[in-house]
Write a structure and sequence with these properties.
Blueprint: H1 26-36, H2 38-43, H3 56-67, H4 78-84, H5 87-91, H6 100-111, H7 114-129, E1 135-145, E2 178-187, E3 190-197, H8 206-218, E4 226-229, H9 236-239
Parallel strand pairs: 1-4
Antiparallel strand pairs: 1-2, 2-3
Length: 245
């Protein structure tokens, strides 16, 4: 029987270089952003897009990932941070696309659609993770600001969900600082809805307002949601009743 000899010519071996980057929790957070449909929720809500190969929804995921780390960076350092930690490879983008002008334009684009975007993500969370919304906890906090800032061109209430920074009751004891008030509704440990308020806003009616807005955005019936607020609130009894009653 004839014997077949196969001669394989080996190619010259080339050295493979590896670079180690510290991605941290961004790998897990990226998967969560995908499950929640964050990029698509953003892109479906805005009309303008950057002049690069990806959308604002895709780029702004880098900002979200950065804010979830212990190394938050200003926008003008986002490109450097993404390249240093491998976020550009994780998202399949060029780190140079994360310049502050482009990211700032993206944040401006979503500012007027923030409720629409958040509602879309929340609906996805209810569908994908069976997020229970039957019982919620509501509370407020104050956030004070340092330094100089100009608000002369913006009157209180002029722009929806953009609070007016002013003096008010500060829960950190910083009575001499200008501040805003932030209200939050949580389902267990998951924050589901928030509203920014002017710095001199008191707590009366805030949680009930948030509850009604959440119910309206998610198209839930009146008897679906109930809320508990801290007993010290003047209207805690009202909060413990069904929404809309």
């Amino acid at each position: 029987m004839a014997r077949l000899n196969l001669l394989v010519m080996s190619k010259p071996k080339t050295a493979t270089e590896y670079e180690t980057v510290q991605i941290g929790a961004a790998l897990l957070a990226r998967a969560l952003l995908k499950e929640l449909g964050v990029a698509s929720a953003i892109d479906q809500s805005i009309a303008s897009q950057p002049e690069v190969e990806v959308t604002y929804g895709h780029l702004l995921q880098a900002v979200i990932l950065n804010r979830l780390t212990f190394d938050p960076q200003p926008l003008y350092r986002m490109s450097e941070w993404a390249a240093r930690h491998g976020i550009d490879d994780l998202l399949g983008i060029d780190a140079a696309w994360l310049d502050d002008d482009r990211l700032g334009a993206g944040l401006d684009a979503i500012a007027t659609h923030q409720i629409e975007i958040r509602a879309a993500i929340l609906k996805r969370a209810r569908q994908r993770f069976k997020l229970p919304l039957e019982e919620l906890h509501g509370d407020t906090t104050s956030i004070y600001f340092e330094g100089e800032f100009d608000q002369t061109n913006v009157n209180p209430g002029q722009i929806e969900r953009v609070p007016h920074l002013c003096s008010g009751y500060n829960k950190d004891g910083q009575r001499d600082k200008k501040q805003m008030v932030l209200s939050l509704l949580c389902a267990g440990r998951v924050p589901v809805w928030f509203s920014p308020w002017d710095g001199d806003r008191n707590d009366n009616g805030i949680c009930l307002h948030d509850l009604k807005e959440l119910r309206q955005r998610l198209l839930l019936p009146d008897s679906t949601l109930s809320i508990y607020a801290a007993p010290a609130k003047q209207e805690s009894k009202c909060f413990q009743t069904w929404a809309g009653k």
